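User: hey, got a sec? need LytTR family DNA-binding domain-containing protein folded
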Amino acid sequence: MKVNIDIDDAFTETQVTIQAKEWSEELEEIVNVIKKRKAQRLFGVEEDQTVILDPKTIDYVYAEKRKIFAVQKDRSFEIRMKLYEIENILIPHDFMRFSKSVIGNISQIQRFELSFNGNLCVYFHSGNKEYITRTYVAEIKERLAMGGQSNVN
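Assistant: Yep! Here you go:
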């Protein structure tokens, strides 16, 4: 692998360009390192206590009645952010959109079943389950077939 770095006062922000013949695990690791560099912390509220949430332990995040919740095993935490803001933080941690109101951790998926209406019912290692709407099924199946690796940015 060849690395070129061009430092110049004319640049207003850092930009990374990767040129490759095809996508690889090595590129995936590089992208994840770059994205995690600016990773923000997620804070959840449970019974008037604020808790730092580790993305690896979250099964899914969902919106309900204008509030956002993160689910870990048998616990649920309110997150005081917008769903799209949380999605931007969690994408480098193997999260994908499951529906308009749900973002799920594909690393925590144990199995899934196809429902009669074309949706997927996803079962997490913790025993929790959630549904993936038809709009997102193909993208998630493709990502899971790649071993959970993302091929975007």
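Quick note: The mean pLDDT is 86. Let me know if you need anything else on LytTR family DNA-binding domain-containing protein.
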